[in-house]
Amino acid sequence: MTTARPGPAPGTGPGPPAPTALPPPAERGATVIPDRVVARIAAQAARTAQSRRAALPSGRDGEAGPGASAAVRGGSVRLHLSMDLPYPTDLPGTCERIRRDVAERVARLTGLEVGEVTLTVRRLVTVAGAKRGRVR
Fold it and tell me: What CA–CA distance (Å, rounded) separates 84 from 18?
């Protein structure tokens, strides 16, 4: 046998208030992604693009992978990448493809508009020459 406890009906007495409808999304706030997080996403995207577009395997013989920095301002981001590229290669074409790949990936993962991507080539690496010894 169950007995009801005397008191107010559920949701009308003291205690937590009953759930109400959420305010519109514009009034709830915004998601903020720190610059360093966007930079890490860009560095990973650059590593993928470097191995795919430049045919240069990442992490060779202790070499540093691509570096990235990001500046997020009001829903858009500017990226700066630095990486090694193979020699010989079509530098302008390879750089443009890598910039485009990184911009698309960062925009897709963060929801930010990528305004500018600059790429600095740290050095040119001879892929075949790295395996051969010195020529005399």
Answer: 59
Closest CA to 30 of 72, 64, 70: 72
10-residue averages of pLDDT along the chain (136 residues): 59 63 79 92 95 67 81 94 91 94 96 95 78 54
The DSSP bridge pattern shows strands 76-87 and 113-126 to be parallel
pTM over 0.85: no
The Cα 100–Cα 49 span in angstroms is 9
* Contact between residue 98 and residue 54 where contact means Cβ atoms under 8 Å apart: yes
Q: Which amino acid is at 49?
A: A
CA 121 to chain centre: 20
- 50 touches 56 (CB < 8 A): yes
